[in-house]
Specification:
Elements: H1 4-13, H2 17-28, E1 32-33, H3 35-47, H4 53-66, E2 68-69, H5 86-94, E3 100-101, H6 105-108, E4 112-113, E5 116-119, H7 124-127
Parallel strand pairs: 1-2, 3-5
Antiparallel strand pairs: 4-5
Helix pairs in contact: 1-2, 1-3, 3-4
């Protein structure tokens, strides 16, 4: 699951780690989001980065189409240092996320929540199965190879993030 800090960085830079991560999520994973994350993304893009309302509307519309929306689970107030992060954790739990990707120091301090690892954006490709991204450059060992064994790039990487 990408938290709002990662999404903000992806949209304001349109290049770099967070943008690549968003693209990878859209192509290879189930994107989990909540109204809370989308509202925070919209608010920060508008208020802090002065994004025009029409661009924010396009981003919201794209998310509505591409993402799986969940209602965040209720998380106890003492679960993290910043009470504003409770909805992020609740979104991950409700969406059965396999990982929370964030730049938020308070979330990163947890390292994991209810078995869900919490990592920085640059750590994702180390966390994910690297074999799923490697091109198959090997030739079959012999001509009798039926080709039925899956090549690394044939393995679908559909984790919830």
């Amino acid at each position: 699951m990408l938290d709002s800090s990662v999404l903000i960085a992806a949209y304001i830079s349109r290049a770099g780690t967070c943008a690549s991560l968003l693209e990878d999520t859209l192509n290879d994973h189930d994107w989990i989001i909540s109204d809370f994350i989308l509202a925070e993304l919209s608010r920060k893009l508008r208020d802090k980065f002065k994004y025009p309302e029409d661009e924010i509307a396009e981003i919201r519309e794209a998310a509505m189409i591409a993402a799986e929306f969940v209602t965040p689970d209720e998380i106890a107030s003492g679960a993290c240092r910043d009470p504003n992060d409770l909805s992020i954790l609740g979104t991950a739990v409700a969406g059965k996320a396999h990982v929370i990707i964030t730049g938020d120091k308070d979330l990163l301090a947890l390292t994991a929540f209810r078995g869900i690892p919490i990592i920085r954006p640059g750590e994702f490709w180390k966390f994910a199965d690297p074999a799923a991204r490697l091109p198959d450059t090997t030739e079959p060992a012999d001509s009798a190879d039926s080709g039925t064994s899956p090549r690394p790039q044939d393995r679908a990487c559909k984790s919830g993030i």
